[in-house]
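Colleagues,

For the teaching module next term, I've prepared a clean inverse folding example: a structure given as tokens, and then the sequence designed for it. I'd like students to try predicting residues themselves before seeing the answer, so please don't circulate the second half yet.
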């Protein structure tokens, strides 16, 4: 950087970590788990004698 010039933000500022893949895997995993639990609940409710 030359004296008297402004710093380039892209080079000077730290960039946040890119964890989008980890977040996507986590949320889709939670959604699949919820669907499995709901399907087990429905299956047991349908099989239950009235």
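(Answer key — instructors only)
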């Amino acid at each position: 950087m030359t004296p008297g010039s402004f710093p380039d933000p892209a080079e000077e500022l730290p960039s946040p970590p890119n964890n989008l893949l980890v977040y996507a895997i986590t949320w889709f995993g939670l959604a699949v788990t919820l669907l499995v639990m709901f399907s087990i609940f429905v299956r047991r409710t349908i099989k239950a004698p009235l």
